[in-house]
Amino acid sequence: MLQALIHRLLKRRHFWRYATFSEVAELYASRTMRIFALRLVSVFASIYLFQNGYSLAFIAFFWGAFYLMKVPFSWPSARIAAMYGPKHGTLMSNIISAMAMVLLAFLPHPEYGLYALMTWCVLQAFSSTLNDLCYLIDFSKVKDIDHAGKELGYMNIFEKVATGLSPVIGGVLALWFGPAIIMIISALLFLFSAAPLLKTPEPTKIHRRLNFSDFPWRQTWRSFLAEGAVGFDVFATGTAWTLFMTVVVFAGSNDSNRIYAEVGFVTSVTVFVALLASYSYGRLIDHRRGRLLLRVSTFTNSLIHVSRAFVTTPVGVVYTNAANEAATTGFSMAFMRGMFDTADRSGRRIEYLFIIEMVVNFGAAIGAAVLGLLLLVFSEVLSLQVFFILTAGVALLIATPKFALYRR
Fold it and tell me: Tell me, what DSSP letter sits at residue 396?
C-alpha cells in the first residue's frame, strides 16, 4: 500500500528516469518503514536505560561501544552486500533487528536485564551497519544522475515523515501501555520493511569480491574525514540531546511514562520544517548550488550546537529542533549527493561506501567516549553543555570535502 501511494504521488515527476521508477519507489517504501521502526525505539532508548537505573556515563559509554562495534561489522556487511546484493542484505538486517528489539523488553528484569542489553547491542550494531551500507549502495546505484538531488529530497521527505510521526506515536503508546509495547511494534515493522525490495532484481552484480587495488585515496580522503565529523554530530544530535532533555528540560516530570510523550512531542513538531527544506534543498543541489548549501548549513549547524547548551524550556527545545532540522537536512543532502558522485567516479562503489560506513561509526564512537569522559569529571549538566560546545567545533569539518561534483 505504501509503495502504491509513492507511485501515485511521484511517478509523474520521475518521467526522466532511464530505469523504471519501481526500484526507487521500493527503496522509498522500505526505508520509510525501517526509519519508522528504528525511531520508535532510538528516541527513547536512552531514556529507557536512564529510568532503569543506569547512569549517564554508563549510557554514553554503552553507545560508544555500540558504535565501535559497528566499525568491524562494516567488513562482513560489505562482503554480504557484494556477494548477495544490497536487497538481500537489507532483508537479513531487518530480521536481525526484529529479534534484537524483542530483547529490550527484558531490560527491567533484575537477572537477565544486562545480558539482554548486551545481546541487543551486538545484534543491533551488526543489523544497522548492514542496513545502512546496503541502503547507500542501493540508492547510489538506482538514482538518476541528473536529478539525484530531487530524489534525495523525496527520500528525505519520506524519512522525515517517519522520523516525525514515530516519536509521537511511540510516546503516546509508552504513556498508555508502557515502553515495552514500543519494542514489540518495532520488531514487527522491521519484519515488514524489507518486503517491498524483493519485487525487483538486485541493482548490483552479485558474487563479487571486494577489491582495493588502485583505490582513489587522494580523491576520497577528505570525505572520509568529514564523514567522521558527521558521526560525531549524529551522536550529539540524537543521544546527547535526548539525555540533555531528560535531565534538564523534563527533569521535573512526575509520571515516569509521561516523559516519553513529552520528548516525542517536541522531537516531532519540527517535521514540517524538514519537509519544506528537503524539497527546496534537492532543487538547489540539482542546480549546482550544493557546495554553498553544504557550507552554510554546516556553519549554521555549528551555531545551533552552541545554543543547545543554554536551552532550559520545552519551547526552547522546539525552536532548537526546528533550526537543527533545517541545517542538518541541508548539509546531509548536499554531502550525500557529493558522496554518491564520488562513489560513481571511484569505480569502487561498495569499497568506498564501506569505508564511509566505518568512519561515520568511528566518529560517533569518539563522540560517545568524549561525553562519557566528561561525565566522569564534571556534573551531568555541565558535561552535556561542554560537549555541545566541543561538537560545534568538530561539526565544522563536515564542510571540508572537495567533492568533484561541486567543482564543475
Answer: G
**Number of other residues whose CB lies within 10 A of the CB of residue 7:** 18
User: What does the pLDDT read at residue 84?
Assistant: 86
- Collapsing DSSP to helix, strand or coil, 363 comes out as helix
Contacts 24+ apart (CB under 8 A), 237-241: 237/324, 237/328, 238/42, 239/46, 239/59, 239/60, 239/63, 239/368, 240/60, 240/367, 240/371, 240/384, 240/387, 240/388, 240/391, 241/308
Closest alpha carbon to 159 in 291, 266, 27:
27
Q: Which of 262-266, 312-316, 366-370 has the lowest mean pLDDT?
A: 262-266
> What residue ranges do the domains of the chain occupy?
20-201+217-407
CB-based contacts of 408, cutoff 8 Å, min separation 6: 288
Quote the pLDDT of residue 284: 76
End-to-end Cα separation, the chain, in angstroms: 41
Residue of 286 and 353 predicted with greater confidence = 353
Cα–Cα distance measured from residue 244 to residue 238, given in angstroms and rounded to the nearest whole number: 10
pLDDT of residue 32: 52
- Tell me which residue of 59, 50, 53, 4 sits closest to 29, measured CA to CA: 4
Q: 20-201+217-407 — its CATH code?
A: 1.20.1250.20
Encoded amino acid at 400, one letter: T
Distance CA 43, CA 179 (A): 12
Q: Cell match 554514553: residue?
A: 60
Q: Is the pLDDT of residue 176 over 80?
A: no
| pTM as predicted | 0.80
* Alpha-carbon gap, residue 123 to 273, rounded angstroms: 34
Q: Which residues contact 242 (CB under 8 A, 6 or more apart)?
A: 43, 46, 47, 263
**Which three cell numbers mark 113?**
536485564
pLDDT of the residue at 160: 57
Give the largest Cα separation in the chain, rounded: 60
